[in-house]
Amino acid sequence: MFIRVKTSKNSPKQSVQIVESYRNEKNQPRQRIVRHLGTAFTEEELKRLKDFAEFEKAKLEAEKTPALFKPEHLAEAAIDARKNIDDKPLRVNLKNLREQARITTGIHEVFGSIYNELGFNNLFDRRKESAGKNLRHITMARLANPVSKRSSVQDLSKDFGINLSLDSVYRMMDNITDDIISKAQNCAHSAAKGLLGEEISLLFYDCTTLYFESFTEDELKKNGYSKDMKFNQPQVVLGLLSTSEGLPVGYEVFPGNQYEGHTLHTVIPKIKEKYNLKRVIFTADSAMLSKANLDYLEKQGVEYIVAARLKSLTDKWKAKVTESNAPLRSFDYGKDTRLIVTYSDKLAKKNKHDRDEAIRKLQEKLEKSSNPKSLISNYGYKKFMRVTGDIDCRIDEEKYAQAANFDGLHGVITNVKDMDDSAVVDHYRQLWLIEECFRISKHDLKIRPIYHWTPKRIKAHILICFIALTCARNLAYRVRLRFEPMSVARIVNALNHVQLSILWDKKTECRYVLPSKINEDARKLYKTVNLSTNTTPYKM
């Protein structure tokens, strides 16, 4: 097998195919397309498609076709029977048919294929095979409809033909050890390397907080600064690592009162030791920016691209960065360090609009308050307001003008030497991909609030969400390469509509399977993981 790039004569597009050589009946050499991977319009797209083609070719050559995930009971029998479909007509009396079950199969077939391929089905050893199956089931349930474990068990029975007991799910969670968590992160890292076709050198890191429906603290659940504004509820801090393509590679869980800037002392040694990376360009937002952190990164020999807090610079530096609205400027900022400042009209308009809108809403709130002074602080947009007398609310023009000087400006600090200013900025701007991972985790997978109390089950819950996130991002990356970008919500919606109806003939007592119509999104997703979409009715 080999990879072929087919160039169009009158178009910039280039098609990437996996081709196999063979000989026909007359022993003449021939070639056939084994798999069409997609079409590229730029050199970057072509590079990614060729990496993906190498990944797919290696699987084909090793004859490692992902096993189809088989739900239990009726669903398992229905999917097994599909393997033996023939062209013989089915002779049935429709009046005798009754629907016995309607089972959603898209999630289990497509995401189940990804799950197995990434190696998550091998996290538990053979002695705990049932725990491994339960982990896979509950991960699929979280992808399909992220609810509590009790509701997931009910959904699996009602929608997927899978019967689990809630106790067996909790036992599985209690059997998740630090070694299993480490193995899962190794699977995610290996998958990212395989898809990208190269050693990972650029890593993005960010933290978020996950709160609990509880008000009781322990050694892991602690009150702290909450990004969800749940300051009176205990939380944990989650630090996530991803590639520049948004593929998760690892995470760490910290006590809720941990300052996220201090998490670097745990994460950096892990990056260097566990992932055995030759080079790391560490990228993070301004929460990681402190002299102590930058000194630590320098001491560890780690290159970094970190957002700068321009408004917190010294007066001398503030004057430098605000003296011009040039699109890109670079300054020497200490030994082997650059401060790169960019300006955007679009960002400037947004900054002004956000500030004015926040002040307008605050003024309305102040004018309605019987004690407006109690609402004024030096926090956020409130610092722009002055209250004189009882209810005379005015904008502090001096502070407002000082803030307006920074409209449209953004800065990053880096010690990377072999990358020009524009490339550094471009790399930093990809940080939104890890923020998207958090958005998917919080909204699509509903990682919080957390309803578990013990540290072991909290860590198990986070692992389940991490595995689900890894499967979702992995599939989204592949379908984007082969067809078009799809959000996780769109992917899940398409797969939730792929179903099987199991029909029972009350006279002959035979069962028949009627697959649902496959929508176009689902068809692309099935093709992405190389599964067929046969919708022919068949007999069980």
UniProtKB/TrEMBL annotation:
GO biological process: DNA transposition
GO molecular function, one term: DNA binding
Annotated Transposase IS4-like domain residues: 206-470
Domain of life: Bacteria
Source organism (scientific name): Sedimentisphaera cyanobacteriorum
The protein's name: Transposase
Any Pfam family matching the protein: DDE_Tnp_1
Upper taxonomic lineage: Bacteria, Pseudomonadati, Planctomycetota, Phycisphaerae, Sedimentisphaerales
NCBIfam families: transpos_IS1634
